[in-house]
Prior knowledge:
alpha+beta; two-stranded antiparallel sheet; 5 helices
Amino acid sequence: MTTTLNAAPSETTTVDCQPAAGSARMAPGPLKLYPGCPWRRGNHGKPTPGGFYRKDNLRRLWNQIRKGQGIQSCHLTDPGHPDHVAAGAAPTAQPRECAGSIALVHRETRKIQDCLDQGMTEDSALLRYQQENPHGLTKRGLVFWACQRTTLTNTPLGEDPIPEIEPGLVNDEELVARLPEH
């Protein structure tokens, strides 16, 4: 499936909405933000195996999220990565998607929805979002999250619909804001 997204009359992006390379099936069910989540502000700078709490690592992860480069697993639940095991993932754990990364995406898409709620057209809302959030979701990222990861009337449009997260997580002040791209 392909989707075309117009940010401005002179700008068009066509994105193939197939599963991202390396996307792994995740365990089902609502996600919660674990105390050790790298997206929690209180964890930044703490020494860990794999350097999960370093700003450069979070920036790297945010750039993957914003560009729609795939699903991020919760490092404490994914034994498929040696650095996740070193950070405490049990060898028998079942991978879960990172609730923190999903909350960040919800925050970003809510900004576009706020523009639409003010009566803007879709193109105007997207253009305003891109102007006000140059380090926010890219057009490709928006299409990934809207096309591949969305569920409509309980039917997944993509292979891995966005999972539910615990109530209130999107507004959790302890959760870090997205990071600028470098």
